[in-house]
Write a structure and sequence with these properties.
single chain, alpha/beta, eight-stranded mixed sheet, six-stranded parallel sheet, 22 helices
Length: 625
């Protein structure tokens, strides 16, 4: 008994100490939580951020530059408070910020930070480039600085007055490419039978399930429209940097030799070839910006305001927001077209039609602009949207389509009910064709699992489309008939809209993709230009004069969604007050294995959202790499 007492006292002391530490931890956590809540509430009810007099506007796109932000659930918004989710930057925000800053006496310059910028279509790049050029007309300078520039970020950097590159950085202009993973051999090895029904030898969307390589027809068509985009890219950069497309092409093709001559130093090559104006480390960049915008006493960096804070400070005072009178309504159709309802970032047949209907029924709306950035998808959903646009025209409201980076296949289908179609010369469009496909796995089930399916049905169609049964040839013929009918319907829509014969449309259809410039030559597009020109044309058709408003018709957010979105936007400033930075999740690593797996995953994700009630799709696989 006596031997146990000396051991029990330290144990009691340790237990007491443990309880004390636990209570202290709880008090600390509660105090920290209360401080965060108070900070968030303060941010919600506080006024907008300050714009320092004479400071620089920092335009630093995060992630992909897009026409419309991908819809985020309340859970996503909450995770965004902790820095979760993939980043996107809205094109409209960049353009509006630059337009407002042009005449804002508080803004002395623009600092273009492109290190975290992701992908962007050529039309998006051109819109931002045009906004940068317009800003420079004010006499204020644009400084672009970065650790590295890929070809898309460099296109924007080239529009600046000065480009500063990190001495350990590089400029990599690769050119445009379109590469896909082909599955035919793998499908055969697994014993899967992939049934494909299509019209058009150029309808290459289904080729990965039929071949192990790209068809000659697809190579021919792709090289033609990619060549148009590449020439536009070279022209835009060459004009901005006061050089020639031939000089940039020579640099790109001769890079290995130039690197060798420069001792393997890519930054030196960029400077010698006049792609950049000077090499500058980050502290040297700060020093240059302090010269332009002055020094901030607290941060010891240059006086600045971020683009999100600047837009928040502007509030409703965005360029064009104070227009009076009747409205031109803009409806954005971005992403793959699916049946039913879809959030922003995808085009739902029902939800997008509802937005168009909302604009049609608004007495203040006198014209509608449909901004299309879509490779297509469900043929049924495409027709639902097209029909709603036709009803708007029947109601005597002009409908103008403005094509963004991609308006192909179903994206072109929904464009056929328009009084006028505008496209950029670099828009990817056309791809007028139809396909349907589905796999059956009866062979691998039997071979690897010893599973067999048998039974009876009262008709040929009973159980005919089961994935675990061999497809009846008669059913296959029937499906192909429906695909043929869908193609004829597509041709009829285009023929009527473009005032062309069925055969003339067929010659430029059959799934072939065209650039906007080629599409105009072939009668698929009326005029070449961007969204601004399309809006002006719609206003002119509605005889609105110059005192109209421009409004975006979007899904109304619930009170909860508005509150969470507001918290998500303002939480970055609260985090900064606590010494933290909220950053979105980075893109996955681009290693060879990861890239292959990601390509397969993206294909599976695309297939998972296809929900056309008839299994018929007007879709173009037009991704550029």
């Amino acid at each position: 008994m006596n031997e146990t007492r000396p051991r029990s006292l330290p144990r009691r002391m340790l237990c007491g100490l443990g309880r004390g530490l636990d209570q202290s931890r709880r008090v600390f956590v509660n105090v920290l939580f209360l401080a965060i809540v108070v900070g968030l509430l303060s941010a919600v009810f506080a006024g907008g951020p300050d714009v320092p007099k004479g400071g620089a506007l920092v335009v630093a796109p995060k992630g992909n530059l897009v026409e419309q932000l991908t819809a985020r659930s309340p859970q996503d918004l909450v995770s965004g408070l902790a820095g979760g989710g993939q980043a996107e930057t809205l094109l409209r925000d960049v353009v509006d910020a630059l337009a407002a800053a042009k005449g804002d006496k508080r803004i002395s310059a623009v600092y273009l930070d492109l290190d975290e910028m992701g992908g962007a279509g050529m039309t998006v790049l051109e819109d931002v480039a045009a906004a940068l050029k317009d800003f420079r007309k004010s006499g204020k300078k644009v400084i672009a600085a970065g650790d590295n520039f890929d070809m898309r970020s460099y296109y924007l950097a080239a529009q600046a007055d000065e480009i500063l590159l990190n001495p350990d950085g590089m400029v990599l202009i690769e050119g445009f490419g379109r590469y896909r993973t082909y599955y035919r051999d793998g499908i055969d090895r697994l014993g899967i039978t992939w049934h494909v029904f299509r019209v058009g030898e150029y309808k290459s969307a289904v080729e990965p399930y039929l071949r192990d390589d790209m068809s000659p027809e697809a190579k021919e068509a792709d090289l033609e429209w990619m060549g148009d985009l590449w020439r536009a890219y070279l022209s835009g950069v060459a004009t901005a940097r006061k050089t020639t497309p031939e000089a940039i092409t020579a640099l790109v093709e001769g890079l290995p030799e130039k690197l060798k001559a420069a001792g393997g130093n890519p930054a030196k090559v960029a400077l010698e070839e006049k792609l950049v104006d000077r090499l500058a480390a980050r502290d040297e960049v700060r020093k240059r910006m302090i010269e332009l915008a002055g020094e901030d006493g607290k941060s010891k960096s240059f006086k600045q305001v971020s683009m999100p804070d600047y837009l928040e400070a502007l509030g409703g005072d965005r360029p064009g927001a104070k227009g009076k009178g009747d409205k031109v309504a803009i409806v954005v159709a971005k992403g793959e077209i699916v049946d039913g309802t879809a959030g922003a970032g995808r085009v739902g047949g029902d939800s997008t039609a509802a937005l168009i209907r909302k604009a049609r029924q608004d007495e203040k709306v006198k014209a509608i602009v449909l901004r299309v950035d879509s490779p297509g998808g469900s043929a049924f959903a495409s027709e639902v949207i097209r029909r709603e646009l036709q009803l708007a025209r029947d109601a005597k409201k002009p409908v103008v389509v403005s094509m963004g980076s991609v308006a192909a296949s179903g994206g072109y289908w929904i464009s056929t009910s328009a009084d006028e179609i505008w496209a950029s010369p670099e828009t990817i469009t056309g791809s007028i064709g139809i396909f349907g496909m589905f796999p059956t796995i009866e062979k691998p089930l039997a071979k690897y699992l010893g599973m067999h399916v048998d039974g009876v049905g009262t008709t040929t169609w009973a159980g005919a489309l089961r994935i675990d049964r061999e497809l009846n040839p008669k059913v296959g013929e029937a499906v192909q008939s429906m695909i043929d009918h869908g193609y004829e319907e597509f041709l009829a829509r285009v023929s009527k809209a473009r005032k062309m014969s069925r055969d003339d449309v067929d010659k430029i259809a059959r799934g072939r993709v065209w650039s906007g410039a080629d599409a105009k030559e072939r009668g698929l597009v009326d005029k070449l230009g961007g969204l601004t020109e399309a809006i002006a044309s719609a206003a002119e058709k509605a005889k609105l004069g110059k005192t109209y408003q421009v409004t975006y018709v979007e899904k109304d957010l619930s009170l909860k969604e508005k509150m969470l979105a507001n918290l998500s936007v303002r939480s970055s400033r609260v985090a900064a007050a606590f010494g933290y930075t909220l950053a979105p999740s980075p893109e996955p690593a681009a290693g060879a294995g990861a890239a292959i797996l990601r390509a397969v995953a993206n294909e599976a994700d695309r297939l998972s959202v296809w929900n056309d009630p008839h299994g018929i799709y007007a879709h173009c696989f037009c991704e550029l790499r």
